């Protein structure tokens, strides 16, 4: 029996949730890599724009649009990775040792609360994104459809919601806390 199966008493449900958790970890790793590559691209665009201004005396057309696009990808796809890696800031309270049962319960509910917040933000953002879609808004210089910017944000929030739900299920099925 594997250690994962041992933790859950050999439950098939735990094995399925664990498999889903590992799949979400792989997905968020890929998204974070692509997002950070986009951030490196944004830095490259800014450097080229600065050099071009010094050499040619003009700014590079579309540098702002491309930089915003790359930064949007990086920021939006880093959020699910942070949830997946459990890399968010936490605070240990002074009384945490005395009220261990209470804080364990709270720690188990945090992924569910995070999923709820991300789902709510996704709902609100979806409405605004559909307005952008209906209006056909585009960026100023290169006419990049604004819905593409929103696509990064919406996908990041949707995946974050799923990651948090999987973490919540995993904490329900084990004695681990986040």
TrEMBL record:
One of its GO terms (cellular component) is plasma membrane. Coiled coil: none annotated. InterPro entries: DctQ, TRAP_DctQ. GO terms for molecular function: transmembrane transporter activity. One of its GO terms (biological process) is C4-dicarboxylate transport. It is found in: Cell inner membrane. The chain crosses the membrane at residues 30-52, 109-127, 147-169. The keyword Translocase does not apply. It holds the Pfam family DctQ. It is a multi-pass membrane protein. The keyword Cell membrane applies. Keywords: Cell inner membrane, Cell membrane, Membrane, Transmembrane, Transmembrane helix, Transport. Residues 43-172 form the Tripartite ATP-independent periplasmic transporters DctQ component domain. Part of the tripartite ATP-independent periplasmic (TRAP) transport system. The complex comprises the extracytoplasmic solute receptor protein and the two transmembrane proteins. PANTHER family: 2,3-DIKETO-L-GULONATE TRAP TRANSPORTER SMALL PERMEASE PROTEIN YIAM, TRAP TRANSPORTER SMALL PERMEASE PROTEIN. Belongs to the TRAP transporter small permease family. This is TRAP transporter small permease protein.
